[in-house]
From TrEMBL:
Gene3D superfamilies: Glycosidases
This protein's record includes keyword Signal: yes
Name this protein carries in UniProt: GH25 family lysozyme M1 (1,4-beta-N-acetylmuramidase)
Organism: Ensifer adhaerens (Sinorhizobium morelense)
Gene Ontology MF annotations: lysozyme activity
Signal peptide: 1-30
Classification via InterPro entries: GH, Glyco_hydro_25
Superkingdom: Bacteria
PANTHER family: LYSOZYME
The entry's keywords: Signal
Pfam families the UniProt entry points to: Glyco_hydro_25
Keyword Transport: no
Length: 353
């Protein structure tokens, strides 16, 4: 009896291994390992108003193909500085309004410089708690994006007390689409992207926005595919987090170590053709769970189960069979037919008997 039970468990483990290997083969893709070291891949700089930039020095780096600037931040400041400021003083409100006016002039100056030197241009909105429609309008009023310019929603986390909620982020993106005819790109970190991907039935819009991925590691081959994202649109790989005096993944001339640097997995020409974007990614089916069961035949029956989470494309297991001769503990390899067909195929039960 013990031998037959061990035999069954071995068969189940082999079936699970078979499925795992098949799934890995179906999703084999080239990984992403330090793509910024390939001189053919475009480099994109992104900056906020406090980043110091020597434009003449920076433009000497011919790999730099684009510039994304911080535009709006949360809700707009009150020009009148009257009414409830949430504990803020009128004097501070006026200071912030002056800062807002100066930052917007800096934004416009940087855009003029970048575009005049042939760089692609983009703008991002730093998402905060508060009315998402008002924030979307604030972004469009501030950035005044042209048809060939990238728009980005910067979502730093999933805590709605600190950042715009995911539900409000979808409203923001939808309002941008309503006013401009294009969706923004989503900028976020690994934790937030992974959460959105895992819960994409609830966050269907966000999970289909092109992903600007922030992760300061040299290798992300084990990250994608992640939900609807087969890969990143842009990868922010360097910032003050991992760039210092001694080591830095990529140094941009004329800037300090705190500048954010990004890479696209394509050259400047290819990037230009898709830069402004504005369309949603295809929606993939959710992972399906396969349950494989093996029953012992004669006498007292024992059962064992193996489960495997199968990402897209789903596997169609038509049948898997294994036999164990009564009293002899014969261990036979499970076999089955695997179909890597259309995404909408359901996963069927793999039965062992």
């Amino acid at each position: 009896m013990a031998k037959r039970y061990i035999s069954t468990l071995r068969m189940i483990l082999r079936l699970a291994t078979l499925l795992g290997l098949a799934f890995a083969a179906a999703n084999a893709r080239a990984g992403e390992l330090e793509p910024w070291k390939s001189k053919s891949n475009a480099i994109i700089v992104d900056a906020y108003e406090m980043n110091s930039i020597d434009w003449e020095a920076m433009l000497a780096d011919k790999r730099i193909s684009g510039f994304i600037a911080k535009a709006s931040d949360g809700l707009p400041e009150s020009f009148s500085c009257t009414g409830d400021h949430g504990g803020d003083t009128v004097a501070h409100c006026k200071t912030m309004w002056r800062k807002y006016a100066v930052s917007r002039e800096l934004y416009q100056t940087r855009r003029m410089l970048a575009r005049s030197h042939g760089l692609l241009w983009g703008a991002y909105h730093l998402a905060r708690p508060g009315n998402p429609v008002d924030q979307a309008n604030h972004f469009l009023d501030y950035a005044d994006p042209r048809d060939d310019e990238l728009m980005v929603l910067d979502l730093e986390g999933i805590d709605p007390e600190k950042y715009m909620s995911l539900e409000d982020a979808a409203i923001f993106a939808g309002h941008i689409k309503t006013r401009t005819g294009r969706y923004p790109m989503l900028y976020t970190n690994h934790v937030t992207a992974k959460y959105i991907a895992a819960n994409r039935p609830k966050h269907r819009l966000l999970s289909r926005l092109p992903l600007w991925y922030a992760r300061y590691k040299p290798d992300i081959r084990q990250v994608f595919p992640m939900g609807n994202w087969d890969s990143y649109a842009l990868w922010q790989f360097s910032s003050g987090t991992n760039c210092g005096k001694k080591r830095c993944p990529y140094r941009v001339p004329g800037t300090l170590n705190d500048i954010d640097v990004n890479v696209a997995a394509m050259n400047r020409t290819a990037l230009r053709s898709i830069w402004a974007g504005g369309t949603l990614l295809p929606e993939k089916p959710m992972p399906l769970i396969l349950v494989a069961r093996a029953d012992e035949g004669a006498g007292t029956s024992s059962a064992a189960r193996a489960t495997a989470t199968i990402e897209s494309p789903p596997l169609l297991i038509s049948r898997a069979e294994a036999a164990s001769a009564a009293g002899e503990g014969v261990d036979m390899m499970a076999t089955g037919a695997i179909d890597f067909g259309r995404h909408d195929r359901a996963v069927r039960l793999a039965a062992s008997r």
